[in-house]
Amino acid sequence: MNKEKNIDALIKEALSKEEAEYYDKLEEKPVLKQFAGLYRGKNSWMNYLVAFYILAALAGCVYAGFQFAAAESTKELLVWSLVMLATFIMIAMLKIWSWMQMDKGELIREIKRLELQLSVIAGKKK
Q: Does 61 fall in a domain?
């Protein structure tokens, strides 16, 4: 950890003021900021759509749960339990997709950070 701080300090010394500000923006963000970042950028419309489907699936799951509780025959119990299972799976898959988008953002940020470090090192060698 100490080595990483030393490398960061060396890089910041070699950068101009604007580049140093850009470098600071590339640091790892807390999870809530990463989540909020899903709703900014080019693909934010897709994340809004996914959030809508998650809420719709949750509403369907709650409705199926009430219908399951009120069911009188085994067939109805089976149908409503399968609807609940399907909506749980849908919610899980959409959540996993959202988490992968958050991870993709962090990977892109780390790649940009590495590119900046490489350009600083290449600049020092010249």
A: yes
pLDDT tens column, 42-99: 889 999 999 999 999 999 999 999 999 999 999 999 999 999 999 999 999 999 999 9
29: burial class by Cβ within 10 Å (0-12, 13-18, 19+)? middle
Give the domain range for residue 114: 32-125
Residue 45 lies in a domain: yes
Query: pTM for the whole thing?
Result: 0.70
- The answer to whether residue 112 is domain-embedded is yes
Distance CA 58, CA 6 (A): 48
Tell me, yes or no, whether 66 lies in a domain: yes
Q: What is the pLDDT of residues 82-98, one digit of tens each?
A: 999 999 999 999 999 99
- Total length of the chain: 126
Sign of the dihedral defined by the CA atoms of residues 102, 104, 110, 113, in that order: negative
Counted domains in the chain = 1
- 89-100 burial, b at 16+ Cβ within 10 Å, e below that, comes to ebbeebeeebee
What secondary structure letter does DSSP report for 39?
T
